[in-house]
Amino acid sequence: MKYNLFIGLILISLSSYAQNPITIGYTSTIHSQILNEDRLLEIYLPENYETSNKTYPVMYLLDSFLNFRHAAASAEFLHFDQCIPEIIIVGIRNTHRNRDLTPESSNLDPKERERLGSVGGADNFIGFIEKELMPFIENNYRTAPYKIISGHSLGGVFNVYSFLKHPELFNAYITISPSLWYPIDDISKGFDFIFPNPTKMNQTFYMTLANEISGNMRGNVFKLSGDFENYINTHKDTELRFKFNPMPEESHLSVGLPSVFFGLRFIFEPTQFERFKTRAAIMAQGGPEKAVENIIAYFKKASETYGFEISNESALRDLGYDLIKIEDLKLSAVDVFKANLEQHPDSYGAYSTLGMAYEKLGELQKAKENYKIALNIVKETNNFELENYKTQVDEIEKKIKAQANNKN
After folding, report:
1. What's the rounded Cα separation, in Å, for the pair 328 and 63?
2. Res. 18 pLDDT band, cuts 50 70 90
3. Which of 69, 127, 231, 266 is 20–30 Å from 323 (CA)?
4. How many angstroms separate the CA atoms of 371 and 395, rounded?
5. Confidence category of residue 2, pLDDT binned at 50, 70, 90
6. Which helix (H) or strand (E) holds 27?
7. What torsion, rounded to 10 degrees, do the Cα atoms 84, 198, 219, 66 define?
8. What is the distance between the alpha carbons of residues 163 and 171, in angstroms, rounded to a whole number?
9. Are 85 and 57 in contact (CB under 8 A)?
10. Short-list 366, 392, 365, CA closest to 378
11. Domains and CATH numbers, the chain
């Protein structure tokens, strides 16, 4: 009987342990005076938000009920792959979707107006985002000034309308298969009329299209793409960035996930630094020391452009990796990894790669010192690669011991 009770307690304990929830975000509620209603928000914060003092760009996500989970997963994975910086996501749950996401239009077919019901509230919804939601988020979270909006279908219509009416409200737009069968009156005026000063245009606009074949939606999306391309090609002094990515293999619904994934990657593409890789490329920069200076300067400028700190750690690390493979530049790799450590003194990766460089050069004690510091930092972070860093220390200690035995 005691044995059965003991086993039962173990099973209960294991069951409780196995059912711990995995949390990807939080909910919050904001009351809107403009919309005269409460709005439910779904908020994703970067993994290290609570322990850092950094500020983060914000992506405002329409149709949050459908898109929040996959958008959070995309943002987390892309940051892990060092394609984008960490971001905050603010998902906006719908109440009256057709009302909020559509502008008033004199060209809307009466039958469509009747089918959609309440429409034409886009200006109020813009007012809610600009005057109520953004201040709420900025007062409660550590936000950078860089703002993204992601809208799908009618949300894509809202994106286009917002860009035409208030392009400065967002820095970047992810516009997913926009339902441009819904008429936007101002769009026919043309970009040169709407944006007479191209030097003030520095937004990033990413747009996709699924396998849409009915009505005039497809043609209007392609026409809008042409308007962007013509404006950018005509005005070489504009900093407006645009990419149209048709996805004919996707349905109107399934296009959402890859659009957010590739849209975020395109928005932050300028934060990626092209590796030098070869000796010729490194020397063309003026040598290793000058290459380090160029990397630091590049990311300083990128941080100023985006309005938040963009890390140069991966670029410096890659330069060190490339140098360690070039026989007559191996010693310079240590200097690069030291420069990386100076830039990122709390990074376990910076210590680990410096240790690796020392190990490659046969300076095993210095390698061990850096590996141990990296391990101690990793222990404080619950990093999933903890065992790898333990192994790193164990292996270098074996090498040191073997080296000592050989001398004896």
Report:
1. 56
2. low
3. 266
4. 10
5. very low
6. strand 26-32
7. 30
8. 10
9. yes
10. 392
11. 24-271 (3.40.50.1820), 279-407 (1.25.40.10)
